[in-house]
Amino acid sequence: MESIFHEKQEGSLCAQHCLNNLLQGEYFSPVELSSIAHQLDEEERMRMAEGGVTSEDYRTFLQQPSGNMDDSGFFSIQWFNLNSLLTGPELISDTYLALFLAQLQQEGYSIFVVKGDLPDCEADQLLQMIRVQQMHRPKLIGEELAQLKEQRVHKQTWNEC
Predict the structure, then answer these.
(1) Best CATH choice for the domain 14-49+74-136 from the list 3.90.70.40, 3.40.1130.10, 3.40.50.1110, 3.40.50.300
(2) What InterPro entries does its record include (predicted)?
(3) What is the rounded radius of gyration, in angstroms, for the C-alpha atoms of the chain?
(4) Angle, vertex CA 95, rays to CA 92 and CA 142, nearest 5
(5) Which residues of the chain are modeled with pLDDT < 70?
(6) Taking a C-beta distance cutoff of 8 angstroms, is the pair 37, 69 a contact?
(7) What's the rounded Cα separation, in Å, for the pair 78 and 68?
(8) Distance between CA 85 and CA 44 in Å, rounded?
(9) What is the pTM of this model?
(10) What's the confidence (pLDDT) of residue 106?
(11) HSE-up of 159 (CA within 13 Å, CB side)?
(12) Residue 138 Cα to chain centre, angstroms
């Protein structure tokens, strides 16, 4: 087990420990994550300013604390399940991530880690501006089709009564 990197919890630096354990190495320090959070704050500020620096939204935004970090060591990271068998992306909470990955591994799935500079995309830009909340969990494609068929049958049966 010595070949598996395991960074133990220190303070409230959950994001640092999660990322380093996930990536299997000491990739992030509190200072580096703080720097990334400050960069995100600045990018968010610039994007909000595009709507006008005198706008109510911009002034409200400036009065709010950072959504990317706080003084306790909290860093905001959002995870998504991009399984192509789902009807859409599924937001995964930080607390559920480890359980989710363990379940996938136990079921025999492969888990891949992607390292390096990835190209920017519209989703990244959106996630830098707002924190996403998922209202409904996406279903497996087959589940959705089966549910639609069941609803049709139920509706037909109800109409015949």
Answers:
(1) 3.90.70.40
(2) Ataxin-3, Josephin
(3) 21
(4) 35
(5) 1-3, 73, 76-77, 114, 118-119, 121, 132, 153-161
(6) yes
(7) 10
(8) 33
(9) 0.48
(10) 92
(11) 6
(12) 15
Q: Which two tokens stand for residue 161?
A: 């009564």
What residue spans define the domains of the chain?
14-49+74-136
Return the DSSP state at 153.
H
Are 22 and 100 in contact by the 8 Å Cβ rule? The answer is: no
Is the Cα torsion angle 67, 40, 114, 21 positive or negative in sign? Answer: negative
Written as six digits, the tokens of 133 are: 């909340």
With b for 16 or more beta-carbon neighbours within 10 A and e for fewer, the 128-145 pattern comes to: beeeeeeeeebbeeeeee
| Nearest Cα residue to 1 out of 24, 20, 23 | 24
